[in-house]
Amino acid sequence: MNPYFFYAFATITVLMVVLMILQKNPITGAMCLIVSFFSLAGLYVLLEAHFIAVLQILVYAGAIMVLFIFVIMFLNLKKEDLKTGRRPFYQFAALIASGALVTFLVVQYTKIPPVSFPESVAGFGTVEAIGSLMFSKYVIAFEVIGLLLLVGIIGAVLLGKKENHD
Amino acid sequence: MDTQLLHFIIVTLKLVIPFAIILTFIPLLVWLERKGSAFIQDRPGPNRAAIMGIRLCGLIHPFADAMKLMFKEDIIPSQVHKFFYVLAPFIALSVASVTFLVIPFAAPMPFGGGVLSFQAANINAGVLYILAMTSMGVFGIMLAGWASNNKFARLGGLRSSAQMISYELSMGLAVISVIMWAGSLALNDIVSLQGANILRWNFIYDPLACLIFITAAFAETNRTPFDLPEGESELVAGYHTEYSSMKFSMFFMAEYANMVIASALIVTLFFGGWQIPFLDTNTFRTNADYYLYYFLVAAAVCCVILGTFLSIKFKKGRFGDKRDYEPLVFGVPAVVAGLAIFCLLVVLGRFPLPLEAANWIVAVCQIFTFLFKVLLMCWVFIWVRWTVPRIRYDQLMDLGWKFMLPLAMLNIVITAVRMLWQ
Amino acid sequence: MHPRSVDFEIHMHVSIHHYLVLAAVLFCLGLLGVIIQRNILIMLMCIEVLMNSINLTFIALARYYNQVDGHLVAIFVMAIAAVEAAIGLGIVISLFRNRQSIDINDFNSMRG
Amino acid sequence: METNIQNLLNILVGGITIWILCAGALLCLLIDALWPRKMSVPVYTIGILTLIVTLCSAWYQWLQPDLPAAQDLLVIDLHTLFFITLVVLVGILTILNALGYMQLHNDLTAEFCSLIIFSIIGMVFFFSSDHLLINFIGLETMSLSIYVLVGSHKKNFKSNEAAIKYFIIGGVASAIFLYGVAMFYGAYGTLKISELAMALPTQGLDYLPKTAVAFILTGIFFKLAVVPFHFWAPDVYEGAPSPVTGFMATGVKIASFGFAIRIFIGINVLDMPQIQNLLVVVVVATFIVGNLLAIVQDDVKRMLAYSSVSHAGFVLFGMLAGFREGRYEPFSSHTVMFYLLGYLLMTLGAFAILSLMIRKRSEATHYTDLEGLGHSKPLLAGLFTLFMFSMVGMPGTVGFAAKYSVISLAVQNGHIGLAILAVVMSIVSAFYYLRPSVTMFFKKGAGGCPVIQEIPFTSSASITFCAFTVIYLGLNPDAFIKLAKIAAF
To answer: Where are the alpha helices (DSSP H) in D129-156?
Structure first.
C-alpha cells in the first residue's frame, strides 16, 4: 500500500470537510462534501474494500448529495437568507471542546502499536463475501433495514407533501 | 521488449483508445442525427459546408460547427456564480468519458504469457461503477442550472435532478435481474455468459428488463421523449440557457458522449456485447483463417458491387458542380480495390495463420462488432428522438414512479421464480 | 493469522492507527460543524460526515481483523444515512414552507 | 438449503411478536392507500388490534416452558417479552390518545398509526438483539419514526421546529452511539454482546473499551434526556403533538433502559468504578436540575418534560442502585422494570388528558388555560391530580410503589446518600406537580370557553385504564413486582 496515496486522500478529505463547515453557501458546502466523499472512496480502495468504495460513490455522492442539492435548489434561497452572524465566544468554545475530544481520541489511538495490515484473505471485500454474509448471519439486520427504508419513504412523503384540502 | 514498458504502453492504450473512440463517435453521431432527422422529415439535411467543393454528404458540417464554437466569444454573464459556472461543463464531459473505462470491447485474449483484457479497468463491481458514474452526470447539469442564476436554468437543473433520481431506481432494478442471471457484477462475465447464441442474449432472455433499462437510459441521458431539462418550448434551453461557445459545446458533447455510453451499456448488458452472433470466441480462434478468407472474399464482392452501383449513377450535369463527380470518386476506387483483393485471394489461396494473429483478428472483429452494435443502438436513440413527442413533466414522474418502478420490481420477482424453476 | 504475529514495522507503512486517527479527526470536525453552523442544510451534511467517519473506522478495522463484518456494518450505516437525509430534508422543507428561513437561530419560538 | 429454511422458520416462530407488528403496520399502510374514502378510523382499529394480538402472542410465549431460539442475533427471552409488553402497552395507549386528539384537531393522518407501530418494532429490536449493529438499527428505526411523528403537525411551526431540533440532536446522538459501537469492534473484533461479555481486548487496542462505553452511554443519555444532555427535551416535548410527546416520553425511555440493562449485564467492562462514578454524577445532576427547572415552567407540557427528565434520573438511579460492590446485579433490574411500568401508566394518563386540551384549534397547555377546569370538568381534573400525585410518589399510587422499590434497593446496596437525595427531590417535586391541580381547582377561569369541551370515547378509555391501573398497582404492587422479578435475569 502506498503511503503517499493515503496522505493525499486524507488531506483532501479533511481539507474539504473543513471548507464545508466554514461555508455559508449550502451548494458550495455540498460540492466540498462530494469531493471528500470521493477521496474517502479512494481510502476504501486502499483498504481493499472495492465494493464499499463503489457504494460510497453510488449512495453518498450519487443519491444523498443529489437529494441535498435538489432540496437546496428547490428552496430557492436568496442571498439574504445566507446571512451570517458571528458568535465568536460560542464558536471558540466549540472549537476548544472538539479540539479536546480529538486530542483525547488521537492520544488513545496512537497508543496502538503501528502494526501494518495483515495480508488479506482471499475474497476479502468482494461482492460474494459480503452478500453471503448479509443473507445468512445478518439476514435479520437486512430485514430491519428494509423496514427502516419504508419508514424513510413514509416519513419523507408525509413531511414533504403539500396538503391539498385547504 | 521490456515487459514493464510493454505493460505501461498497454495501460496507456487502454486508457486512450476508449476516449478516442468516444471523441470520434461524437461528430459521427451529430452527423447521423442531422441526416437521420432529415431522412425522417423528408428533407435533404445538411449539405452545404464544403472543403474545395467536397461535401461528403454533409460530413463536413460537424467540423465546421466545431470550428465555429471554438472561435466564438466566450461570454460569462455577470449574474452567475463564476466558479461553478465554469466547472459545470467540465464535470458533465469528464464524468461522461470516465464511464467507458469498464466496458469490455472484446474477449480477453491470451497474450505474452498473460491475459490481455480489452477493458481499461476490470472492476469486480463493474455494473455498480457504471451506475455510480452515470449518477454523477447529474451534478454537471444541476450545477449549471444553479450557477447560471436564471430561473429557466434553475428549473432545468431541478427537473434534471428529479428525473435522474427517479429513473436511476428503475435502471438499477432492471440491471439486478441481469446480474441475477450472470451471478456476477463484472461486465465481462455478463457478456461471456450471454454467449454467441442470440436466443440467450438478455434482450430475448429477459425482455422486460431490457425494455425498462432502455427507457430509463433515455431518461438518464436527457434525450427525447425525456428531454425536459432543456425543453425549449417551456424553458428556453433549460440548464444551458446561459452558456455559449466552447462551454456550450462541452454540454453538447457530453450529451452525445452519454448517448454513446448508454448505447454501449445497453449493448453490453442486453445485446451480447462483443459477441459475434452465432460465432463463439473459441470456434472463431481455431478457424480464424477460414473465416478470414471467406470474409475477405465477401468483402471484395461487396466492394465491387457497391462500387459499380455508385459508378453507374454518374451523370454529368446533375448538380452542375463538383458534386457530379462524387460517385466516381468513391465508386471507381472501390471497384478497383475489390478486384485487387479478389485477385490477391485467388492467387494466394487460403493460408494458415499463426495463433497470435488469429487471436488478434478475433479481437479486432469483436471490437468492430461491438462498435457496430453501439452505432445501431445510437441510431435507435436518434430514431426515437425524431419520432416520439416530448412527454409532460407529471407524466414523466408518473411513468417513473408508478409504472416502471413497480414493473422493475415485478421483473425481479419473475426472474427469481424463473431461476428457481430451472 | 493474528495481526499481532506480523513483525513490527516502524517505517513508512500506513497502519491501522493512521486510519483511526483520520476517522477521529473527521468525527470531531463533524461535531464541530454541527455546533458552529447556523445553516440547517450544512448541519445535516455534518451529520453525514459523522456517519462517514464511523464507516471509515469500521472499514479500517475490518481490514485489520480480516473480517467482512465491518463492511456489512458500513453498508447498513449507508442505508441509515440515506434515510436520515431523506427525513431530515423532509423536515427542512416543511419548516421552510412555514417560515422562509434555514437559519437555526431563527427557530426559537419556544422558550422556557 | 435445508439449514436456511430451518433458520428462517426459527426466525419466523421465535420472533412472532415482531412479525405480527410488521404485518399490522403494513396492513395499516395498505388500508390507508386502498380505502376509497380517506377515513382513519379503520386504520387505527387495525393498529390497535395488531398491538393487542402482539400482546397476546407475547403472553403466550411468556407461558411457554422453553422459548424457541429465534436466531443468535435476536434474543427472545423473558426480559425481552416483558419489555415488549411495556412498549406495546405504550403503543395501545398512544393510539387511543391519538384517536381522541385527531377527532378534536382533525389533523393527524393515517400514516401516524403505522409510524407508531414501526417505531415500536424499532424499539423491540433495540432492546432484544444480541448484536450491537442490530441494536443500532433498531434505535434508528425508532428514532426516525419519532422524528417524523414529532413533525407530523405540519402547519404548526412549533411542531416543525421541534422536529428539526430533535432530528439534529438525535442524529448526533446516534452517531456518537455508533462511534462507541465502532470502538467496541476495534477493541474486541466482534459486536455480539454475548461474545463481548467474555472477550478480552485485542492487544494494543485495550484502551478502547472504556471510551467505547462512554460514547455508547452518551448516546443513550441523549435519548433519555438526562442532565447534561437534556436541553432539547422541553422544546421538543412542547412542540410535538401531545400524543406523540407521551409516546416519546415513555416509549423511548423504556426501550433505552431495556437496552441499557442488556449491556450492563452483558458487557463486563461496564463494571468499572469510573462508569459508576459517571452514573452518580449524571443521576445527581439530573435530580437537581430536572426538579428545579420544572418548578419555573409555566406550560404543562414543558413541566412534564422536565418531570420526565427527573424520572429518567430516577430510573437511572435504579440502575445505579443495582451495583453491589462494583458489579451490576442482573436480578436487581426488576426495580427498573417495575418503575418503568408505573411511569408509563401515569405519564400516558396525564398526556391523554393533555391531548384533549384545545382552544382555537390549537393545543392549549399553558397554566392559564387550566384555570377553572376543576369546575367545568371536575372528574377529569381529579384524575389529572391523581396522575400528578402518582408522579410525586403519594402512597396508594403506583408512583409510590415504584419509588419505594428503587429506594429500598439503593439502601440495601449501600447508596444511602443518593437515596436521601431522591427522597428530598420527590418532596420538592410536589411543588410543581401540584401546581396544575391548584390552578384547576382554586383559580376561577376568566370566562370564555373552558379548554376541554368534549371527551372522545377512546380518550376516556385510555384515561380510565391508566387511572385504574395506577391505583390498582399502587395498592397491590406485589403481583407485578413478582412478574418483573421473573423477567429479570
So the answer is: 132-150
- Helix locations, D225-366, DSSP H: 233-239, 242-247, 253-266, 273-295, 300-321, 333-355
Q: Which residue is listed with cell 423473558?
A: D78
Instruction: Assess A71–B contact: CB distance below 8 Å, yes or no.
Output: no
Hey, are the CB atoms on A62 and B136 less than 8 Å from each other? yes
Contact assessment for residue C91 and residue D169, using Cβ atoms and an 8 Å cutoff: no
Nearest CA-CA partner of D398 in D458, D328, D347, D459: D347
- Cell of residue D485, nine digits: 422479578
**Which residues, listed in sequence order, are joined to residue B115 by a DSSP beta bridge?**
B110
| Least CB–CB distance from D168: residue in C27, C34, C80 | C34
Summarised one tens digit per residue, pLDDT across range B31-87 is 888 888 888 888 887 877 777 766 667 778 888 888 888 888 887 788 788 888 888
On the question of pLDDT at A40 being above 90, the answer is yes
- In this prediction, residue C7 has a pLDDT band, given cuts at 50, 70 and 90, of very low
Residue the block writes with cell 432484544: D128
Contact B135, B399 (CB under 8 A): no
End-to-end CA distance of chain B: 51
Neighbours of chain A (3+ CB pairs under 8 A): B, C, D
* Alpha carbons D206 and D187: distance in angstroms, whole number: 6
Q: Do A158 and D138 touch (CB under 8 A)?
A: no
CA proximity to A108, closest of D215, D221, C49: D215
Contact indicator for A48, A124 with CB cutoff of 8 Å: yes
Option in A34, A67, A73 nearest B157 (CB): A73
Give the residue among D487, D241, D186, D466 at the shortest CA–CA distance from D354: D241
- CA-CA distances (angstroms) from residue A62 to A2, A54, B164, B406? 28, 10, 10, 22
At residue D71, what are phi and psi to the nearest 5 degrees? -155, 160
Q: How far apart are CA A62 and CA D317, in angstroms?
A: 47
Q: For D291, list phi and psi in degrees, rounded to 5.
A: -70, -40
In sequence order, the 6+-apart residues with CB closer than 8 A to the CB of B273 are: B104, B187, B190, B191, B194, B267, B370, B373
Q: Are D231 and D290 in contact (CB under 8 A)?
A: no
Q: Which residues of chain D have a CB within 8 Å of the CB of A144?
A: 121-122, 125, 134, 137-138, 141
Question: Which residues make Cβ contacts (< 8 Å) with residue A13, sequence separation at least 6?
Answer: A36, A39, A40, A43, C22, C26
B246, B249, B250, B253 alpha-carbon torsion, rounded to 10°: -150
Q: Distance between CA atoms of A163 and B386, rounded to whole angstroms?
A: 39
Q: Distance between CA D396 and CA D4 in Å, rounded?
A: 53
A60 touches chain C (CB under 8 A): yes
**Residues of chain D falling short of pLDDT 70:** 1-4, 36-39, 65-71, 107-108, 201-206, 268-271, 445-449, 489
Place of cell 433458520: D7
Query: Which CATH code of 1.10.1670.10, 3.40.50.150, 2.60.120.620, 1.20.120.1200 fits the domain covering A1-79?
Result: 1.20.120.1200
Alpha carbon A27 to its chain centroid, in Å, reads 16
Chains D and C touch (3+ CB pairs under 8 A): yes
- Distance CA(B124)–CA(B192), nearest Å, equals 15
Backbone angles phi, psi at D406, to 5 degrees: -65, -50
In this predicted complex, what is the ipTM? 0.90
B142 to A69: CB separation less than 8 angstroms, yes or no: yes
Q: How many residues does chain D have?
A: 489
Q: Where are the domains of chain A?
A: 1-79, 126-166
Backbone phi, psi, residue D108, to 5°: -75, 145
Domains within chain C, CATH numbers bracketed: 39-103 (1.10.287.3510)
Pick from D318, D305, D400: nearest CA to D350: D305
